[in-house]
Amino acid sequence: MDALVGLIDHLSHLLERVETEVIPMLANLQTIAPDIHDMLDLIQELVDMLGKLPGMGRIKRRADEQQAELEKRPRPSTLGCSRSSGAGPLRQRVTPRTHSTHQLARRRPSA
After folding, report:
1. Would you state the pLDDT for residue 105?
2. Which domain holds residue 5?
3. Calpha distance 98→62 (Å, rounded)
4. Has this prediction a pTM greater than 0.85?
5. Which of 48, 58, 91, 103 falls 20 to 30 Å from 25 in CA-CA distance?
């Protein structure tokens, strides 16, 4: 009963915080979505341009081989997780990357 009284006492403060912090943040999310789509389009264009560079086929094959090796390795079990695979529904929907810009930057010869 004391917990219920304490909850009711904090309810006005909680409602005030939701109105002043959460609701304005949700309104900002509507303006962020188009920017994210523009960024994804730009990234796709960059990936297409990188794919046309000489030697990228070899780098892509090497990255694919490394990705295949990583996928073959057993994943460590997650504590408190009932699934043994560790791959949730979000992970299954994501298209696997064939290469990353970080991997490409590491392989770039120094001048």
Report:
1. 47
2. 1-52
3. 9
4. no
5. 91
List b or e across 43-58, with b for residues whose CB sees 16 or more CB atoms inside 10 angstroms: eeeeeeeeeeeeeeee
| Amino acid symbol at 44 | Q
DSSP secondary structure letter of residue 75: P
Contact by Cβ (8 Å): 63, 98: yes
Residue 86 lies in a domain: no
| Positions of the chain with pLDDT under 50 | 83-96, 98-111
- Distance of alpha carbon 20 from alpha carbon 4, whole angstroms: 24
Domain count, the chain: 1
pLDDT at residue 40 in the model: 94
Tell me whether residue 19 is in a domain: yes
Assigned domain for 27 exists: yes
